[in-house]
Write a structure and sequence with these properties.
The protein is of the alpha/beta class. The protein is globular and about 50 Å long.
């Protein structure tokens, strides 16, 4: 079965709930859980210098929400006796950041929510989940 499961969260309630579903799986498999938050380094193209303060505030709020989610998942894992590590990376391509972190950590499964903070829900999968599925050489379990 799985020895190391990577669980990305963007801080949204949906992605956090999906990540919390990885805790019982990790416990059952005696797997280590790696909780990941990928900070988008520049979420909007063409903002311009006039809005740099607003961008910085957005980035700080997104990071705080992401870190809060990471800690919530880590607490749940610790309560169940699951070995846990947390990772925060910066990447302007969230899906690539997830796959790179999974490979770097030696994960043999990526378990993630079908939708996160991306706003309007896609018909089947969120754009990040779809991209991770497309580019990951590691198995991906998408939770709805």
């Amino acid at each position: 079965m799985f020895k190391k499961i990577l669980v990305p969260t963007d801080g949204s309630e949906l992605s956090t709930d999906a990540a919390l579903r990885a805790v019982p799986l990790a416990k059952m498999a005696s797997a280590k859980l790696t909780v990941l938050f990928v900070q988008d380094t520049y979420p909007y193209t063409g903002i311009g210098e006039a809005n740099s303060a607003g961008l910085q505030a957005y980035m700080a709020a997104a990071r705080a929400q992401g870190l809060s989610s990471v800690e919530r998942i880590a607490e749940a894992a610790r309560a169940e006796g699951v070995d846990i590590e947390t990772v925060v990376v910066e990447d302007h391509q969230t899906a690539k950041g997830i796959v790179d972190a999974a490979q770097a950590s030696g994960a043999d499964l990526i378990m993630m929510g079908s939708h996160g903070r991306s706003g309007i829900a896609k018909l089947v999968l969120g754009s990040v989940a779809a991209k991770v599925l497309a580019i990951s050489p590691i198995p991906v379990l998408v939770v709805k």
